[in-house]
Amino acid sequence: MPPPPRLLVQPASTAAAASVRLPARRTTTIAPLPAHISQRLSLRPQRRHARVHDVRFVTTQQTSSAAITEKYRAKLQDKARAEGLESISELKEVYKEKISDVRRKAATIGPPIGAGGSKDAGTVTGTGLQHPPPPPPTPQPHQAQGKGSPTHKVPDTGIKPLSSYLDLEKIASLPAKEIELIWRLRHASDPNSLTAVIPLSTYNRMLASAQKHPQFILPLPRPASDDGSGDIQQAADGFAGKDVKRTTADVHFLQWAWHAPSVAPTPGQRTANTHTSTVIFTHLAAFKLHGEHAQPHTTITHHLDLADSHELVLLNGGVVNGRGVSAEEARWLLMCLQKFYDVEGHGGGMGKDKRQELMRKFSTGDTTFSLEELLDEAERVS
């Protein structure tokens, strides 16, 4: 049997890797979420559901029609007299069809727009989950900016291109090992940075899974509160270090998105660099409260500029200070990301059926989806 591929994100040292190992499963529990989130997820002792709904359906109690009428009674009476009517009831009857039409339109809620304001990140169905968007379209030829220029204009995605980090012309002739070293050194000074060099074959397997399951949740092991309540401890910058006893877990929501490549390929030329992909991680509680306006704590970007020449995909990203997750914990989430999205490559494919089934249940809103089973799989990170 061939050896398993490299991990997506390698900890800086063996000690760092050990610091995110979990305790025995018998002592690990899922920390309770806020009441309104728990209700939406239907967290019950024997059956757990983790179905993510469009947060705009989580609304506050609506003001009653009678209260509105009372508040604007004087204005409504003036309006009735102006229309030659004797009472507010007659006014309502006259405008009955218009009122019904307005209510019908107000009840029609469109699909949520992504964090960047783009509607092409996926379509939303009645389950509240986004289906994956179609594969990135083949870029159409664009007129070159200058005579003889091989570069074609592409839409501005707001994502820093790989060329802003590396001189692509200079590294084009370097072997893969040297590029990997340069890439890691380029970000070594930032303690919150996340970097990896991924074989193209590994990325393609992850991409295939992501197009089926663009959204998922992952549990993150955390230390329990010292007061014995079973709640998780909170810290502005998360927790790090091998001495942290992680006996509970909270849940994090992830979402993939696909964008145009930084440089459009030459028309007619076959290339693997058809897109740039991003993954954002958000506290599930924050996502349930704020939807697309929830602030992610971790964001990563996959650059495919070297996919054709070196069969490499360069990953970079970072953790935002003050949002409750440490860089060490974010690296653990990225290892879990690979574990679930590269089921064939991770661990030689062992346990792949279980992980695939968990993702299928989550994406389809299957009520048999189990947070305990998800936690068991996440604990097996090697």
UniProtKB/TrEMBL annotation:
<keyword id="KW-0809">Transit peptide</keyword>
<feature type="region of interest" description="Disordered">
    <location>
        <begin position="108"/>
        <end position="158"/>
    </location>
</feature>
<keyword id="KW-0496">Mitochondrion</keyword>
<dbReference type="Pfam" id="PF06644">
    <property type="entry name" value="ATP11"/>
</dbReference>
<dbReference type="InterPro" id="IPR010591">
    <property type="entry name" value="ATP11"/>
</dbReference>
<protein>
    <submittedName>
        <fullName>Protein ATP11, mitochondrial</fullName>
    </submittedName>
</protein>
<feature type="compositionally biased region" description="Pro residues">
    <location>
        <begin position="131"/>
        <end position="140"/>
    </location>
</feature>
<dbReference type="GO" id="GO:0033615">
    <property type="term" value="P:mitochondrial proton-transporting ATP synthase complex assembly"/>
</dbReference>
<dbReference type="GO" id="GO:0005739">
    <property type="term" value="C:mitochondrion"/>
</dbReference>
<comment type="similarity">
    <text>Belongs to the ATP11 family.</text>
</comment>
